Amino acid sequence: MQYHFKFAGLLPYWHTFLQGAALTLELTLASTVFGLIIGILCAIGRRSTLPLLPRVCGVYVEIIRNTPFLVQIFIFYFGLSSLGIHISASVSAVIAMVINVGAYSSEIIRAGMDAVPSGQIEAAECLGLSRPRIYWHVIMQPAFEKVYPAITGQFILMMLMSSVASQISTEELTAVANNVQSETFLSLESYVVVAILYLILAVLLRFLFWLGGLWLFRRKRVIAAAERRMAVKSPARPASGRNNPLVRTGEH
Predict the structure, then answer these.
(1) What is this structure's pTM?
(2) Are 107 and 71 in contact, with CB atoms under 8 Å apart?
């Protein structure tokens, strides 16, 4: 059995695919920005000394992480409309994506914050730094340096998960492929094109996050460059006394 690809039949729909890719990027951008804010606040809340705040943040994280993303979208789209709250499919998708990525990113950020040595925090407190300055300079910046690859990977994963939004008629890439293949009957060609577009978007986002890391973590590069210069200026010297094999040889 031979199959002949007919990608030429999709040429009249190229603008439709581009519109779907643009909407996918918009959903990803909104979920990245607002989800990161929620993740930071929730990570700080789970480390708080207030009696109820860590429990509330923990319940939110566990509920979101242990329920399917598709069910979450259905709750915000169909569930809210049943209560008389009518919002568009795109807004429902954004809300569900923000809440979902906020829960996952909060755990990633909290892991980075827990990895900061407590001695650094105690030293900052001894220097008289305020709590916000300690959180920003001593905890948050080193934590982000440690977890930046993981959290950017989570954002790219959310971009791919945005395909679930097609189930509530959000006109992103997967929904566009469903519409095009229903009109042209070129199912394989439509989904191959969409898969290539998703791959291009993922590579583009990884490149942008890499550039963002170079701009955000300049301090890390400066420290690494200073350590290399120090290593060049002060090379390792041979040990003296009994630890030096040349000295031991001379004793005999």
Answers:
(1) 0.81
(2) no
